[in-house]
Amino acid sequence: MDKVVVITGAASGIGKEIALTFAREGAKVVIADLDLKAAQETALEIDPAAQRALGVGMDVSNEEQVESGMARAIETFGRLDVLVSNAGVQIVAPLVEFDFEKWRKLLSIHLDGAFLTTRAALRQMYRQNSGSIIYMGSVHSKEASPFKAPYVTAKHGLIGLAKVVAKEGAAHGVRANVICPGFVRTPLVEKQIPEQARELGISAADVVKTVMLRETVDGEFTTVQDVAEAALFLAAFPSNALTGQSIVVSHGWFMQ
Ligand code: NAD
């Protein structure tokens, strides 16, 4: 695959697997993450010669950092074919107690981050007259769970953004879609298990069984590889007819 791909939040979990997968397919990848050291280590793991992978420090909710990070990515590899807007965090608490600063922080990382990286990517993609933007939604882009008010709100919002980008971008050869994974055992989820156990007054094992996997058809977690394969599909020509869509990758949890 002869493409340049920027992935945010790519120093861990789903984003890292997407970076590894695209790199294996021959793409040049930019690992953009709040954690610069981990981003650089991931880039070196992908390409010790530092020719085909670049680690960039970027807080996606900070306009200046997004502008300079995206500019560096485009300058380094000369073009931009795919943006995977993936960086995200989770904060779990009952809505009635939700701290306003934490609400704003979560919305800002998920929604400001998606907007800022999209805007910077579109400028380059419009010049090239081609591009694919992939948002990391969630089953929570389609359905709610208790204690996750800002997360559910933000993930629903990404579907709206993708639809607008699909409509505005079409004239410039740009597509936009959302991947909606079920639970994947990344650091984000490992941290959530004891938090949810506390909120619900049940054991960690019961959180996994009765909350996270209850509605899957086979009791299985989604894997980082499952999500990366969906991203690969949405990035390339075989998905040419897909734009403004959301694909649920969840072992059957939430059937549309
Ligand atoms: P993770 O915690 O393993 O990785 C998240 C990465 O994002 C980390 O490297 C972190 O440093 C980075 N990050 C956090 N804040 C950032 C910021 N402000 N700017 C730039 N980078 C930042 O989590 P993950 O599970 O791989 O999650 C990745 C995405 O997938 C998130 O958007 C998450 O909501 C979504 N998602 C995860 C699951 C799941 O079950 N793990 C399910 C559905 C959707």
Automatic annotation (TrEMBL):
Annotated GO biological processes are: monocarboxylic acid metabolic process
Q: Which PROSITE patterns match?
A: ADH_SHORT (PS00061)
Domain of life the protein comes from: Bacteria
Q: Its Gene Ontology molecular function terms?
A: 3-hydroxybutyrate dehydrogenase activity
- Could you tell me which Gene3D superfamilies the record lists for this protein? NAD(P)-binding Rossmann-like Domain (3.40.50.720)
> What InterPro entries does the record point to?
3-OHbutyrate_DH, NAD(P)-bd_dom_sf, Sc_DH/Rdtase_CS, SDR, SDR_fam
Membrane-crossing residues? Answer: none
Give one Pfam hit by family name.
Answer: adh_short
Family that this chain belongs to: Belongs to the short-chain dehydrogenases/reductases (SDR) family.
What's the protein here called? 3-hydroxybutyrate dehydrogenase
